[in-house]
Structures are given as structure tokens and as C-alpha cells.
Amino acid sequence: NAGVTQTPKFRVLKTGQSMTLLCAQDMNHEYMYWYRQDPGMGLRLIHYSVGEGTTAKGEVPDGYNVSRLKKQNFLLGLESAAPSQTSVYFCAIRLAGDSKDTQYFGPGTRLTVL
Amino acid sequence: GQQVMQIPQYQHVQEGEDFTTYCNSSTTLSNIQWYKQRPGGHPVFLIQLVKSGEVKKQKRLTFQFGEAKKNSSLHITATQTTDVGTYFCALLGGNFNKFYFGSGTKLNVKP
């Protein structure tokens, strides 16, 4: 996983509850991403960050907030969970260079909202 | 946002048969990436294609980028059970910070 960890691995929430997912990297990469993956669909970008203190919206940002206070950590928050947010959430870091542009994904967080 | 169409959605093959998945875009792409996701796992980067008409090989996997840079394919020769998983293409969006993924092709290989 190129040093990308996600906490927690599994979580069950009730509608309206809140939670924070943590993505941590043990390197010093600038770019970090949050995706959600639903059955039969590819990964959809929720939010991303190009560096400490910066965040930006992806394809499906509604209902989520993010923060990147420390370079190593990218947090994804659900303020009031809805059943439509049941999904597998993946965090990724990006290594971009002259001849290479690669994303390394964390192991994922499986979230169920009842 | 940008979209890339990926076909087929599913493919079931007998071990030893070949497999191909295709990604098509209506716009010219700066590059395209391919990922593999094993069942229950996370996506793993396979390769990036940048040049028009580029062909790259990794053992039994052959990746192609179209001459017009609007389509790409991944071909697996003589599939093995270890090839089981979902294969995704991904493109880099216009601001060069966002990635857009295809819906994936799920490959099942019967031994």
C-alpha cells in the first residue's frame, strides 16, 4: 500500500450519525485523494488535496467534508450520515514526476449506514 | 467532469483464453492509466500510457493507447486464475489534479 493506512476498516452507522475517516501516509507526498466505490461502478472522487492546508472538491463532494491540517493525514468527515453513503471508501496518494504519475491506494474502509 | 466508457462490464473466460478490455473517451486524453483490483482488495496501479500509439507489455499483459489518444485497451494473453479481478482505466482531468475512473471490467477465469 506504499505506506497508506486507513482507519477504521469497517464501520456501521445509523442515519444521522457522524464520523471521521482517517487516511495517513508515512511519506511526504503532496497529493492525497478520497474516493468512494459502489457496486458495479468505478471509483468516484469525493475530495482531494494538493498539499497541507489545501482541499478541493471532486465529482461527488456533497455530504462530505475534508481537512488536511497535517501533511501526513487527510480526514474525511460525514456530518450526518445517510444510507446513500453506504460504500467502500478508498484513500490514495499520488506520486507525480517527469515520467511517472501513479496513485497508491489504502486498503479501504467499508461503511454501512442503516 | 470528463468521462471514459469502459467495456465490457463483465467477462467470463476459460483459463488459457485471451481477454481484452477497452476504454473510450470522446475527448483527447493527456494520458491513461490502468489499475487492477482483486476481489475484496484495493486498486493497484499497473501502467501509464502517454504517447499516441504507445504499446507497452508486462509479461502477458499488453497495453495500447490509440493513435488519436481517445481510446486504450488492455489485453491479457492466456489468462490464469491469478488474473481474476476488476480492471479499471483512469484518466487525468483537465486541471491535471483530478482522476476519472472507468466503471471497470470484471474478469472471471474458470480453471
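qc> Chain A has a mean pLDDT of 93.
qc> done
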